[in-house]
Amino acid sequence: MPPKKKKEETEVLGAMRAARFGRVKNDLSMGFVGLPNVGKSTLTNLLAGAAHAEAANYPFCTIDPNVVRCIVPDQKFKYLSDCWKPPSVVPAALKVTDIAGLIRGASEGAGLGNAFLSHIAAVDGIFHLVRSFDDDDIVHVDDSVDPIRDLDTIQGELCAKDRETMSKTEERERERIRKEKAMSRQAEIKFGDTFLSAFEKVNKLLEANTPVQTGEFTNGEVELIKDWGLITTKPQIYVVNLSKKNFIRKASKWLPKIKEWVDTHGGGQVIPMSCEFEQEYWDLKDDPAAQKAYLDECTQEAKDQGLTGPAFVAKTIIPRLIRSGRQALCLQSFYTAGPKEVRAWTIMKGTLAPQAAGVIHTDFERGFIKAEVCGFDDFKKYHGGKASMAGPKDAGKYKQEGKMYEMQDGDIVVFMHNTSGSKKK
Q1: Any idea what DSSP says for residue 406?
Q2: Which of 8, 212, 319, 329 is the most exposed, having the fewest neighbouring CB atoms within 10 Å of its CB?
């Protein structure tokens, strides 16, 4: 089994590779995709109600019946909030959409068909939820539980839709070249080498029912593919819904097969969880002592089977799901902190200081002068228990950065700007 740090680094690199095809903006969203009755709505509702301690007074918001904003679990944000104790705290949030269940033939219009696929096109990343539990009261659309068959169905429909899109891509490129070069319809069109290589690589992946986002492409090829509107360029996280019993013992006959399937279809992060376990835990939300007793009971159940160690300590997976979704979209936070408010602001990895300032207000980007920055770890080490930057300043850890500064996750920032708009005559 690979070391945890090595595994986390691999997942981060995979997320960065997938996100290269995404939209460059800070308000990105994830969507649950899967067959009917696999737990999408249950899990979406659990994410919507995930009452994290660091955001107890934040108004949880359901945008509409199938779109929710869930609070990003963030110990750094909690630390800053506890330090300043301001009247207003605003944590980061991740938007998640519960997309209606897909069925075989959706790419050809079956079920919700094109409406379903347009909903996937509207999100930036995918939680691919697959059922791995038996329950006679919850009917499976194909009459039996088989996660591998279900994975093949979902992936096959997504790739089929992308193959349909690719069948029109060549003609669109031909028309673009013809118009750009004012060529007649009888003239022979010669495609560029970058287009031809990207086109060939994408089609090869789709024919193998492998997501395009897992492929190896040059920067030039990526820029072309981004404009083709392919669903499988979106980062995917595979979420396996187990029974409570199997979740507690962290075992299922399906898990090794699912992992093997994912590895042979481009790889990706696999997160085992249990809606049954999470729902029972959530139902005790008004009684923290009962919640702790429930977790202890589940941990003891594992111990009674001879299963011990950190992996078998029962805990909710909801925070991990939210963090993984955010990581897949390559999002991170910086903070503004003071006596009136502590707020987490969401930006994409690689964002420069002026653009980060623009997330707060467009005038801040337009009139950007500099950023006064202290990394969270430096603040925690040197602030001496005070809600002040005096300690980090004395230690030389409060720095002034210019327009080319790349924001780091956890930066605490004050932006200096000038938007007077005065003009010399």
Answers
A1: B
A2: 8
